Amino acid sequence: MTLTDAQIRVTEPDFYFYDPHATYKKMREQAPVYWHQEGGFWILTRFADIEQVSKDAESFSVATGVILTDVLKDHDYLSQMFPEGSENFSVLDPPRHGQLRHLLNFAFTRKRINSFEPRIHQLVSECLDGIANGDVVEVVSGLSIPVTASVIKAFIDCDDMTVEQVVEWSDDVFRMGSDISLDELNETVERIKPMFDFFMQKVEQHRKAPQDDFIGRLIESELDNAKLTTMMIEVFLQTVMVAGNETTRNGFSASLRLFADHPNQYELLRKEPELAQSAVEEILRYHNPTIGFLRTAKKDTDVGGQVIAKGERVYLVYGAANRDPTVFPDPDRFDITRFVDNTKTHLTFGRGPHICIGMALARLEMRILLQELVARFTGFELAGEPVRPDTLLGNGYTALPMRFRRTG
Ligand code: HEM
């Protein structure tokens, strides 16, 4: 049976709410490089094809946008988000991409990331300590948000932001990537103006009273033999805050949901807490907190035996790649021992030049979450209907009520 756009509803958020994996399987097997007639773009579902395109920045560009809404809507999301004079490295191609990304390396060293470990333990503990046996907690607002939003604001040395601001502003930026009307888009742009003002003022304050922190280091950086403008630093702050917020939040919520659905795997983790790092990788593979990103062909390029013509868009569906049986045997099985030998990796953080710069921080946060969970709880289960977000970007929850069972 030929696959049709009506079955492959990748442009509709609710497609992702209910197990899209049966569809991905058919696509990998029957049409791994699928032309989505209605959307006017290719969809890739095989691991090797997605890896090839992600790595090949010579042939595939990010400059015309990486989010699906860019092809679905005629409004220009990018220029609204990133005003003239700003450069956002996540939508720049080499060599410019590398020049800008390089300026952030100081923030992502192993030493700096690990320095957040005590703080993350403390934040997770603060959320979990008060949960008594049998308590029902809405996990997104009671755990995922307070921890991950607090970590990301500390990471960019903006502790004076509130968790609410981090969430509102990041969610609004993410909302711009969802299926909204032009009016809604303009309203959202208005709503995030205070974020611009906040970051711009922070940079100006740092210029007057220099500090050796995230903003201070960027102020001292040079590009094209000149210091960075305030607007350029604002864009760095905004990009890291947004990219590191909802993604990790979804990773947190998915961890609880997956262990509720697979209590035997949670039991195994309780018995062998040293499996935590492998379990994190399996959660990331199985759930993929980010649905997918786009590339645009710069020249005619063969992918999986199909020529992608210059100018055509390609949608990289990470969740489909992560269930490719040629890479992950029995891919629909949630198995926290899958990554113990450390010989393979999933595509959840992308590949190639744009591979997630914050993956070590996300992994650290999720590992600590698992360690703190098994230290306190014998298990947890769904205690109500989960609510999923209406978006084509993040694969997560807006509400996830869970009942916790305490040890002892
Ligand atoms: C579970 C959590 C996370 C997931 C699933 C995730 C996923 C991704 C993916 C798939 C990309 C590649 C995009 C592309 O190729 O177009 C990416 C890029 C990026 N991520 Fe993450 N991310 C996570 C956490 C974080 C964190 C914690 C930070 C910051 C502290 C961060 C910052 C970034 C940035 C700045 C980029 C752009 C990199 C570039 O274009 O060179 N991410 N992320």
Description:
By secondary structure, this protein is α+β, with helices and mostly antiparallel strands. The chain has one domain: Cytochrome p450 (Orthogonal Bundle). 46% of the residues lie in helices and 11% in strands. The protein has 18 helices and 12 strands. It has helices spanning 21-30, 47-55, 69-72, 77-81, 96-102, 110-114, 117-129, 139-155, 163-175, 182-191, 193-208, 214-220, 230-243, 246-261, 263-271, 276-287, 318-321, 359-374, and strands at residues 33-36, 41-44, 60-61, 136-138, 222-223, 226-227, 292-297, 301-303, 306-308, 313-317, 377-382, 401-406. The strands form 4 sheets. It has a 5-stranded mixed beta sheet with strand order 1-2-10-7-3. β5 and β6 (226-227) form a beta hairpin. The longest helix has 17 residues, at 139-155. The radius of gyration is 21 Å and the shape is globular. It starts with 20 loop residues before the first helix and ends with a strand. The mean pLDDT is 93. Bound molecules: protoporphyrin IX containing FE. Protoporphyrin IX containing FE binds at residues 54, 62, 66, 89-90, 101, 155, 239-240, 243-244, 247-248, 251, 289-290, 293, 348-350, 354, 356-358, 361-362.
Stretches where pLDDT falls below 50 for ≥5 residues? Answer: none
CATH superfamily: Cytochrome P450
Tell me the name of the CATH class: Mainly Alpha
Structural class: alpha+beta
Number of helices: 18
